[in-house]
Amino acid sequence: MFTPEFEVGKLPISEIKKYQEKELGKALEYLAAKSKFYIDFFKNNKIDISKIKKIEDLKHIPCTTKTDLQSRNMDFLCVEENKIIDYITTSGTLGNPVTFAATENDLNRLALNEYLSFVCADGTPDDIYHLMITMDRRFMAGLAYFIGLRKLGAGIVRVGPGNPELQFDTIKRISPTFIITIPSFIPTLIEFAEERKIDFRNSSVKAAICIGEPLRDSNFNLNKLGQHIKSKWDINLYSTYASTEMGAAFTECKHGIGGHHHPEMIIAEFLDEKGNQVAEGELGEVTITNLGVEGMPLLRFRTGDICTYFTEPCACGRNSLRIGPVVGRKNQMIKYKGTTLFPSALFEILNDIPEVKNYIIEVSTNNIETDDIIVKIGSTIQSKVFEKDIKDHFRAKLRVAPNIEFKDPKEISKLQMPENSRKPILFIDSRTKNF
After folding, report:
1. Which residues pair with 363 in a beta bridge?
2. CATH 3.30.300.30 residue ranges in the chain?
3. pTM, two decimal places
4. How far is CA 201 from CA 26, 197, 231, 379, 409, in A?
5. Cα separation of 24 and 49, whole Å?
6. Which of the chain's ends, N or C, has fewer CB atoms near its CB within 10 Å?
7. What is the largest CA-CA distance in the chain?
8. Segment 182-194, tens digit of pLDDT
9. Residue 352 — very low, low, confident or very high, per pLDDT cuts 50/70/90?
10. Any idea what DSSP says for residue 72?
11. What residue ranges of the chain are covered by domains with CATH 3.40.50.12780?
12. Are 264 and 251 spatial neighbours (Cβ–Cβ below 8 Å)?
């Protein structure tokens, strides 16, 4: 098995902490000297960075929010414009998209992150990776995977999303060993292959790196989507969680018990509503501090993503913390008929109903200022009996049932991928007030 010469996550836990605290000091000094936003931020909050010595001391610094990024976007820039190599834009899931500027050093750091992630997911220089995600439209993920794979020395074939016919033509021509895709696209590939009698189970593909959607439940068992994929196509599935703001990823190893933290890249905290660190195994908001970012580094940035974390060392040899599947985004939390839900709970149920080909969930505010849910379902079956069956599934698992609206699957596909979209849209938040 190919492994990097040095990986901080494999150091003893005490050494990982010592490493991160040394890098934290450098990061604070850099922000205090280079970032217009943080120069003002430290002054306005009367923060003496010389007193921040330990990771535990970070609690004395207020968090940076998405609103800060949106209102003062380019005040986070720490370099002259002629040092910027690449401009990236967030997807705007939690509001207006934000622009990030990356330097040559930042791209090298990004490549290192993905290199470590691919090695974690059992990748080697002998593998060929089939990229089913976009590399354009100011999207970080496709670029990150490409440069990370170059650092790994593996083969790469850039195909992009959609078009199952082209995907299988690529598999036939190039014989990739890994695919990189959004997991909900894999059932589409399987259905296409089954309809055309393509022997996909005996293809060269042995594994999938899955991005953007969870594959496991809170106990690290495969969720309904993961189970469906494995029942049809017995390939190894590796889940990964990342964001543009982190410039880093948490990627599963073969043991599948959470995404591994790369301590070289970020300091990770998991905070409650009051900004306090939650206990291991409890839900908290992922909050990150960039290490080694030159262009637009962030300090204690609240990502909006809610998940758990675990500190027990993994059998793969990594001692850094692991995170559980993201259960949802803070701003996407739904309060429906007295029940608190995240979209992922609805996705899980819909993915378990074979007759549901695709779907979009839309949440709006009704005339009494509470949340309403409409699930738009693409299916060839559109009867009252089927509608009742779907609602019974929701009531059994969640105690409540949303409104159902049937559509042609092709219409749902168009809604999921509107013009200029970089990834499928499964959740639309039309509320006048977000919680």
Report:
1. 373, 429
2. 333-430
3. 0.81
4. 50, 11, 11, 26, 26
5. 10
6. N
7. 67
8. 888 899 899 999 9
9. confident
10. S
11. 1-326
12. no
Helix (H, G, I), strand (E, B) or coil at 412: helix
**Residue position matching structure tokens 């505010």:** 365
Q: For CA atoms 262, 263, 264, 270, give the dihedral sign.
A: positive
**Structural Rg of the chain based on CA atoms:** 22
Is 1-326 CATH 3.40.50.12780? Answer: yes
Alpha-carbon gap, residue 278 to 26, rounded angstroms: 26
Residue 76 three-state SS: helix
Contacts of residue 128, defined as CB under 8 A and 6 or more positions apart, other chains included, come to: 154, 155, 156, 157, 174, 175, 176, 177, 178, 204
Token representation of residue 367: 């005339």
Q: What CATH number belongs to 333-430?
A: 3.30.300.30
CA 191 remoteness from chain centre = 25
Which of 201, 202, 177, 160 is CA-nearest to residue 118? 177
Q: Does the pLDDT value for residue 434 go beyond 50? A: no
Judge whether 200 and 193 are in contact, CB under 8 Å.
yes
Binned at pLDDT 50, 70 and 90, residue 337 comes out as confident
pLDDT single digits (tens) 61-117: 999 999 999 999 999 999 999 999 999 987 655 457 789 999 999 999 999 999 999
392, two tokens: 């019974």
Tokens in use for 302?
């609240």
